[in-house]
Amino acid sequence: MSKNKQIHDVINSDYKLGFETLVESDTFPKGLNEDVIKAISAKKNEPEWLLEFRLKAYKKWLKMEEPSWANLNYPKIDYQDIAYFSAPKKALESLDEVDPEILKTYEKLGIPLEEQKMLAGVAVDAVFDSVSVKTTYQEELEKLGIIFCSVSEAANNHPELLKKYLASVVSVGDNYFACLNSAVFTDGSFVYIPPNTHCPMELSTYFRINALDTGQFERTIIICDEGSYVSYNEGCSAPTRDERQLHAAVVELVALKDAQIKYSTIQNWYPGDETGKGGILNFVTKRGLCKGDNSKISWTQVETGSSLTWKYPSCVLKGDNSVGEFYSVAISSKAQQADTGTKMIHLGKNTKSTIISKGISAMKGVNAYRGLVRVGKNATNARNISECDSLLIGNTCHAHTYPYHEVKNMSAQIEHEATTSKISDEQLFYLNQRGIHAENAVSMIVNGFCKEVLKELPMEFAAEAKELLNISLEGSVG
Amino acid sequence: MLKIENLKVNINEKEILKGLNLEIKPGEVHALMGVNGAGKSTLVKTLSAHYDCEVTDGSIVYKNKDLLELDVADRANEGIFMSFQNPVEVPGVNNSYFLKTAVNEKRAYNGEDEIDAMNFLKLIKEQTAKYDIDKKLLQRDLNEGFSGGEKKRNELIQLILLNPDLIMLDEIDSGLDVDAIKTVANVINQMLDGKKSVLMITHYDRLLELVKPDFVHILNDGKIVKTGDYSLALELDEKGFEGIGIKDENK
User: Which of A123, A414, A431, B35 is most buried, judging by how many CB atoms fall within 10 Å of its CB?
Assistant: First the structure.
């Protein structure tokens, strides 16, 4: 599409605000159409191929239908009632230029950028309402040939890599929400680790949904080249609001031969209140491709927030001897609903996968584990171990387990274990009798229940996760 | 220290304690004996505010406070300790971490500073050496996969570290061999400092031989029907309940 054609289209569009007004505004008005997509693309100075990618996805999305198979109840989402772009006032080059208010917010989140830069050795690519505010440590990483930047930057600086890997794991039409993301994704992280490089620090992104009524659509792509290693941490947080907000992210991981990716998430978006009012609707597609032999991808997630979670971080084990892991803690308290789990697709020989899922339900929370283990016909000696445990607190919550197994190779070994337990009155009484008060006692029991998963988290995340578990379950015992 | 008057307690709407009176002064050791179902465990559980026990009448004054006003944890932090017959397993919770939390809750309740990990380890080392108790159990998860004997030993470690004022032992000697009973007795005797009091439920005289009670109470049908000194336990051992005029409702 030529520039003239683009402008022509814009002029002829009947969208009342028009393309140029959109580009000038900091926050787009609600609504979705081709102009909005063109404006997002223009805002980010994207190359034309990327705009075409978006528009193709949009056309496809219009023909798709929102899935309804999950064990989730929510009022219909009006996609025209959502704003698809919002950005801080101006582009920033150094931390000094960052609005002190924004920095304050980061501090509230417990991630003072300065301190993190100096003390923790964590490089942070912070996404603040859709545009990267600050990318730290980039230079140091660059020395090793590691690329850690926003997807927008990658579109301009590393187009060949982005073009090669964008939608290579999660195709445009993979599912309704991934397709929407492909059309309107605003930003996210792009990571490339060159061959035989052990990334020397934990890479970390803190997403934060800030503006009112703004959907957030990150796109994250991580490529770990042959013989390399990277550990990536994603933390999320959203302020308290009455309105429901939509979040539809896509994360794609590619591990080449002998490469290893560890992806950890702590998600504590606003869960809504006890009556189910407000909170984030979280529809996320996360998938990793173990493309090369002996590669490994491991997902660890602690999901304590969102009013609704629809998320199945998956591994496609294509390379021989490749390994996929999924460790998950999901809490549904108040009126939260979570339908989460994983897919382990065994394609290569001697592939192994481990699934450890811990679901915790309290108050009126509904928690479902949904997992698929598929063994292809060429996947000789595939092995899977799944362990799905549910913990119930009180009498008004629910836990469900939906395991699916599809095995097309007789040499496969699959083990599935599932338990459901309650925090017993006897356990609580025992801890109380030793002087430990109810809330502390519950958090102790819950932390014990999740121990297998929490120990998979990087050090600096583990402490935060424990705190979150405690906060999330506040008030769940009388 | 403890004064119970006319205590009536229901469990599942059935009256188990039917007007019980008991006074325990500082430094005293009381043994509670009686046939099964007499209400011995119910008394100990009621003093700990167990969720099954519903107090319908009477009063309990502990350290000049109305005990019935306090919840389970506050009573514990006021110095009431109850050993469990069969302590529950809590998977994933490290035993040592649990104990440190409990110790610090008590310290906080008393307005003392928290004890840090280093000093806590030191304290454990000192105390377990003093009472000659194996501390390996502390590395495991709370009661998980413990044998009966290990569970009892773990109760003793908690007893030592929490250093309560009123020690309530609910059949801590059951299922233990002679040596283990000696360990229990050794701990209790060493802890007795003239201020701490003991209320112990037991069916056997072996523990009583080693920890000489000042008072022996026979509980029957929800009331204390006989009180004596150690000789009452000996008499009971010789003649049995019926021999001393106690009707066993179970028969």
Answer: A431
